[in-house]
Design goal:
binds phosphoenolpyruvate
Length: 256
């Protein structure tokens, strides 16, 4: 079954709205003529940049999807400092990253929190990118597959089978994020195939539709090999998405 790869740039807490506009303009220039039927591209700037990016994407008809890095579960209320999924939907956000390992490790998000967020994102007609991945210690003690399965079962438990097929799952081994160390294409494929089997245990049809990204030090030099793997349907890119040249080369992985 053909699944359109999704390549997502997670800018984390980088770039103010002026810098963000510049990056998107450069990227649009570098990807002129690119066939966006073959690959979908989502950009996940900080919240303060979303309105600016939405405006230029819309005005210049750029083929990028707008994404967010996190959201709250409630529509509105006394949640100081939080951003609601309804607010994101109003800004034409399509994809929301939920359960990134930095949110899990630094802000104490549990699988229950991630499940509520994934469900809230779908309720507002956006798509969650649900992140899972093991630590180095867990990999070295042969627990990676079990840890990832537990995270998946916990994080996907509040969505319907139909939503499951439309979801995006990002396999991001924690030891590969921001470290420059990338999982080998074979190891990444093995875990992504495992993720698809776990999804199949919930709903067979959904497992053929769900897109599974790999994330963790993806660079132009390794994106082609990773993306050619049968169960890898795209990439979640951190550091290399902050540079238009490197991100454009990742998006162009078929030509690499
Ligand atoms: C990420 O932020 O999800 C990520 C994978 O970062 P990096 O590409 O820098 O490892």
């Amino acid at each position: 079954m053909a699944r359109t790869p999704l390549i997502s740039g997670n800018w984390k807490m980088n770039l103010n709205h002026f810098e963000a506009i510049q990056l998107v303009q450069k990227l649009s220039y570098e990807l002129r003529g690119h066939d966006f039927d073959q690959v979908e591209v989502s950009l996940h700037p900080p919240f303060t940049d979303l309105r600016s990016i939405q405006t230029i994407i819309d005005a210049d008809r750029m083929p990028f999807r707008l994404g967010a890095q996190n959201c709250h579960t409630e529509v509105s209320g006394a949640f100081t400092g939080e951003i609601s999924p309804a607010m994101l939907a109003k800004l034409d956000v399509d994809y929301v990253i939920v359960g990134h390992s930095e949110r899990r490790a630094l802000f104490g998000e549990s699988d229950e929190d991630v499940a509520s967020k994934a469900s809230a994102v779908f309720a507002h007609e956006m798509t969650p990118i649900v992140c899972v991945g093991e630590t180095l210690e867990e990999r070295e003690s042969n627990q990676a597959a079990t840890v990832v399965e537990t995270q998946l079962m916990g994080s996907l438990k509040l969505i319907t089978n139909q939503q499951l097929g439309n979801a995006v799952i990002a396999y991001e081994p924690v030891w590969a994020i921001g470290t420059g160390v990338t999982a080998s294409a074979d190891d990444a494929q093995e875990m992504c195939a495992h993720i698809r089997r776990v999804v199949a245990s919930i709903h067979k049809d959904a497992s053929e539709l769900v897109r599974i990204q790999y994330g963790g030090s993806v660079k132009p030099s390794n994106s082609g090999e990773l993306m050619n793997m049968p169960d890898i349907d795209g990439a979640l890119v951190g550091g290399a998405s902050l540079e238009s040249d490197s991100f454009a080369r990742i998006v162009n992985f078929k030509e690499a």
